Structure formats: C-alpha cells, structure tokens
Amino acid sequence: MKDSLTIDDLKEQLSDIRKRYPAFKPDDLFVCWFLRAYLTDDEGAAVAAVTGGAGDKGVDAVLVDHKARAVFLVQGKYRQKVGKAAESRGDVLGFARIAVPFAATDVGPFKTLVKGMHAHTAKLLSDGRPYIVEKGYRLWMYYVTLGRVSEPLRVEAQAAVSEAAEEAALEVLDGSRLMHLLRDYLDGVAPPIPTLDLEMEQHAGVKINGVLQRFDTANKIESWVFSMRGDAVADVVETAGIRLYARNIRGFLGEKTAVNAGMTKTLADEPDHFFYYNNGITIICDRAEKRSREGRDFIRVSNPQVINGQQTSRMLASDKMAARSASVLVKVMQVPRDPLSANDGFEILVSQIVANTNWQNAINYADLMSNDRIQIELERSLRKVGYAYLRKRQKLSEARKFVGKAFTVIKKEELAQAVAACEMDPLTVREGKNNLFGEHYSSVFPNSDASFYLARYWSRRMVAFSSRGKPQRGYAAWMALHFLWSRLDPLLNTDRMSRGFWEGCAKSDERLTEPLDQAIDVIFVEVLAYYEANKGRGREAQDHSTFFRHKRGRHLEFETFWKTKAARVKRFESAWKRVREALESIAG
Length: 588
Known about the structure:
The protein is an alpha/beta fold. It has 28 helices and 14 strands.
C-alpha cells in the first residue's frame, strides 16, 4: 500500500475508464468515476448517467436508483490540485437551487429550468423527475469537487435544497472527502453506504437502560454498545446489501456450516436465547450519532462496514419472522481516518479487530489476504475480461447470484496454485494452500495483470483436463504443469500472444487445444517414466503420492531425464510446432 494518495492516483483511475470510453473528456471521466465509486457498482449505469455536454446548467449526471428509491443529481469540479481552489458561491448555490424546480409538482418551473439546456441533459432530467414528483423517490444532490467549500456556504446550499422537499438533501464532497473516497475505492469498498440507521432494541419483554458510549481520548475512537432486535438487523441487511461487508475478509459461508446451522437451530427453537449464545456484530464507520425519532432511539452511521458478524446478520436476515423474537449485541466504532495517508492506523486496527474477533468460523492466511490491494485490483482486472474472481471465501451459489452466468468463476486458491506450480518448485503447491498466502504471497501475487494469471490458470486447466480420470497423472500434475510452463513462457512473451493463448483455451479453439493436449500427453508419459525410474525397489519403493510430495528439486531432475528421451522429445516438438503456429494465427 502506498504511504499517501495524490491527484496522480486519481488520474490513474480516470485513465483506466478512458480506455473503455475514449470520447469522455476529463470532467466526464471524473464524474463517471465518482458515480462508480460512491453511488453504483454498475459502470454501464454510471456512464449512461453522465450528461457529457455543454449547456447542462451545472447538472453533470442524473442517476435513478430504483432499489434505493432515489434520484441523484451531480455536479463535478475536476481540479488539478487537491483542496486548493475555493468553489464560488455562485456555482454551489446555482446547483443547489436546481432542486426546487426539478422537484416541483408544477411543471412550469421545470420547463423554465430545461429551456435552452443541452438536449441529452434535459432528457435525463425529464426521465428522472416523475420518480420524484409521482412515485415519492428521494432527491439527493452531490456537489463534488477536488477543491474546497467553506462551511457557511455548505450550510446555505443545503438549506436551499431542503426547500424543494422534506427529504431532499445536498451533500458536498470536497477534495479531502474525495481522497477518502478514493482510498475506500482502492480498498474495494465501492460504492460505500452513505448512511444507515441502527435502531436500538425496545419492547415490553426487555428493559433497556440506554446505550454504552465510550470515547478513547488517546486513539480518538468513539464507540457505542447496544442491542438490536433481530428483525431490525434484517432490515439493515436488506437495505444495504452485500456492500455492508466489503471490508469483511469472507463472504457468506452458507447455512450448512456448523456455526450457521447452530444459529438456525437457535432461531427456530429458542430465539429468546440468541442474545446469550452469539458474539454479536461489530461495525466500523466514519461518523456515528445517537438520534431519536417518533419515540425510537437509533444510531445513525455513515459509511458503515460490518467487520465481524456477517454470518450472524445474514442468518437473521434469512428468517426475518424468527428474528423478530431474537436480539443481538451490536458494537459501533467511529474510527478517525486520514484520507491522504495509508499509515493512519486505520487499516492496522481493522485487520487486528478482524483477526481477534472472527474466531467462531476459523480464519486462515487466505482469508486474511482477501482485502489486500493486489486482490482487489486483480478482481477488477479479471472482471473486465469476463472472469469473476472470488477473493473471499463464500458459498459458490452466493457468488453466482451476484456475478451471473456470463462470468467464469475463479477461486483465488486455484489461481495461487496455478502460479506457484508454474513459477516455483511444484512441491510448494503440495505443501498446502495456506502457505501460498503466507510466506510465498508476494511471489504468487506479484501484480494485478489479468493476462499474467489467466495464462497460468489455463495452463493448469489444460493439464487438469489431460489428467482427469487418471489418478497416477493426478499425483504428477503439478510437475507436468511446471514443465509445460517452462516451454510456454518464452512463447507468451507479448500481451498479444498471452491473450491469444488463454482466449484460445477458453474458447476451446481446436487449432490450439488439440496440439497442446498432445504435447501435455507426452509430458505426462515422461513424468511417469521418470517416477518409475526413480521410485526405488522392493520395500523402499515409493508410491506416486509419496514420490511427488516429499522431495524438492524433482522438477530439475526431470529436465535432465527429459533430454535422454529423444524419441518422445521429437514427438513433443512436432506437437509444439503446431502450438506455436496456432498461437500466431489466433493472436493475429
């Protein structure tokens, strides 16, 4: 992780968007990135929301979110320096005052607003307005700038927006807030959840004497501890969705794990004891405030994340009726953060809380690396080429529900094994997945380039195809893969050739897969011949599993053995020539 963030880090993200939308101007890229980082996880929806033209009267994006029942209007100011330029009163208030005619039931003021406006902007506003006027959607306005906005001007603008409707609101995100948002975006927390209300438990059967509020003056961390009814937790999960768990090291593990099955049984048989059996839920946030409304007390949290208790909250949400009779302990921590620094202690604190509180379902090294920056960037990189990368341990059906059938699913453990077998002694893979995310992590995950991993992943898949149904080949597969990669790597020395290889394998292009399969078959025959020649005799003879598991350097010994088999090497070279020709043809 970098020690600090600068405008160049933001420009890098905008440059990435420009590759896909080269017609966008810098200001449009900035607004599009903000939409993606703060309001929607659908890049297509973000792109469609950008007005992208002169004469927009300060409206740079219009986004309708039906799930949130909200219409978002955005004005973006892309500055070249963070926090330097002060935004003018005219610009900020001019944008804020759009709220009244946009949300007015009388169409006259709206017609005046869009008169002379860029046609595309006017259409986006016209399409969004009925959701405010007729369907009760909430109006959210965002003034987004890399500059700064004075507090009095911010308050004045918010008051102007509130005149449009009781629920209409304006949020000003200045340079400091945007760098904070960039940090979250790079950490995989995008889009965040702006606010949630956590309602405190209150009913006749339980006596509540307030909330424990604690302020740590040394660390500047303020905490609240209270109880919530299970159905109130379920409402929170339903509202926020899986974004609530972005900083969690795992996904939902499913109902059949021992711990989750135990929670199901408790909810069914003795829900009133759920509070006593469960460790509770831990939430971190940027801001928290105790409020009351209509006789109900709640904690309003901004940018909340559940870092312990995902399984608990998801199980409560899975049976809301039973959850009505259950209660759970909730701990909320408001943690200070420096948006420009990676060394403000926030990440360290979160990781330590995770490691010390997630003990009911055992954690391993692979879990702890789930939110590493490389893993997050790799997930995004692979998604762009049609692969859903599961960087968190979770139920496969859960992942499928969100990625759809169009994506090929890859677990991070599978990718780690493929890279390790190609690049390291094959015995390293046989020693277990955990070490690949521990001492070998930086070697196994050196970058976030999708092509780097997919070439090795598809090499593994092709070797696996050749060993299917043949147990002896299964034991020798990692050595066979290592040898195959030693011949493939020099061929895939350009992005064009590398992409041609993994795309050809993925599409089962017979020009490539047929000779590649023949070459792999020769490798397996020779690896097993090497085993026969070196396994030992009589009682000293090792079985296949033991032979390939208990000695380093066998891949080097095999290279020497390979050179003594001229006939089969010739057969391999014949197939390999066709592999090279196929790659040249596919890669163009």
